[in-house]
Write a sequence for this structure.
């Protein structure tokens, strides 16, 4: 049978590896990946029941792991502390202790690896006996403006310890402006703010709260984290954060919110980060450990999807492994 006269054949651009490489629209690089670390104040590293494959690191363990991660190309990390129960209080004041776990960790990391960019999470949930990101009133209301003062102290203490980027994940109104102002007043005008601008009230955070034992003791986070149904509201949050001085904005979770990332890409001039959260990680891990999906291919496809949607930086528990695949 004669071939069809078919002048336009998209398959020609896929005919070989070399041609596919020329035609590729999006390239994922290890330089885009940010590695999250759970840390605790203990001598040894611990596995995390709610997140198989992830660890809570001791400070010495953390330094060893950072060294390995940097060897495969990781250039940025973010820290999440598991705080001892006896240090959790309703006023969350441990969060700005200059000798607190995060502050000590940042100092040690920057002493050992000055070129690594260290991002710290600013929110009260690991420190707050109520498990909320803000202060809680007696009748259970999450207090916005009173929380800002504590967040500012927390952010400044991270900057004093040497953090390069402060990442407020609390979703209180006005926090980016308040933190910018506090940092500037303390002469930390070069410390950046990566705002969790569009952080949704998501069921995908469950395993993370297990890792830090930070789940809310009562109620949920719906009065501050966003409704998963909304995208215009994400634009509004991002615009506000930009006006208040954010350097980068974040969408979280990532995979179920690719449309949000993509919408923001078209209307925002500053870099967009996205967080592939604990539940997304566990969906992949559980399907792969059952032998149902091919692990490496699925991880890379999930990350390229987030990048293609418009995230220039991706926080992912796969950062070290993916970087090693990308640089090997
Ligand atoms: C809390 C915080 C959460 C995550 C990052 N910072 C959980 C929450 O808001 O309850 C979730 C990350 C993940 O699930 O991997 N400020």
């Amino acid at each position: 049978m004669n071939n069809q006269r078919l002048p336009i054949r998209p398959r020609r651009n896929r005919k070989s590896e070399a041609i596919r490489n020329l035609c590729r629209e999006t390239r994922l690089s290890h330089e885009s990946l940010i590695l999250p670390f759970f840390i605790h104040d203990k001598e040894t590293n611990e596995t995390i029941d709610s997140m198989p494959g992830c660890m809570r690191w001791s400070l010495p363990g953390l330094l060893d792991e950072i060294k390995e991660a940097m060897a495969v190309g990781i250039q940025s990390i973010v820290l999440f502390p598991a705080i001892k129960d006896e240090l959790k209080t309703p006023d969350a004041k441990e969060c700005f202790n200059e000798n607190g776990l995060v502050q000590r960790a940042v100092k040690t990391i920057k002493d050992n690896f000055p070129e690594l960019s260290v991002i710290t999470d600013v929110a009260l949930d690991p420190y707050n006996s109520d498990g909320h990101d803000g202060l809680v009133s007696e009748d259970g209301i999450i207090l916005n403006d009173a929380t800002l003062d504590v967040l500012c102290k927390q952010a400044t203490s991270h900057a004093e310890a040497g953090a390069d980027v402060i990442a407020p994940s609390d979703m209180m109104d006005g926090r980016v402006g308040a933190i910018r102002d506090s940092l500037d007043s303390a002469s930390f005008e070069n410390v950046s703010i990566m705002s969790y601008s569009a952080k949704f009230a998501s069921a995908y955070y469950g395993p993370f709260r297990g890792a830090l034992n930070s789940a809310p003791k009562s109620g949920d986070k719906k009065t501050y984290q966003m409704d998963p149904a909304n995208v215009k509201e994400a634009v509004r949050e991002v615009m506000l954060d930009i006006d208040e001085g954010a350097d980068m904005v974040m969408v979280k979770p990532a995979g179920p919110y690719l449309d949000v990332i993509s919408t923001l890409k078209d209307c925002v001039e500053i870099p967009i980060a996205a967080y592939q959260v604990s539940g997304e990680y566990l969906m992949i891990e559980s399907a792969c450990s059952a032998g149902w999906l091919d692990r490496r291919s699925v991880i890379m496809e999930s990350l390229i999807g987030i990048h293609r949607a418009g995230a220039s930086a991706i926080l992912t528990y796969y950062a070290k492994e993916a970087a090693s695949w990308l640089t090997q």
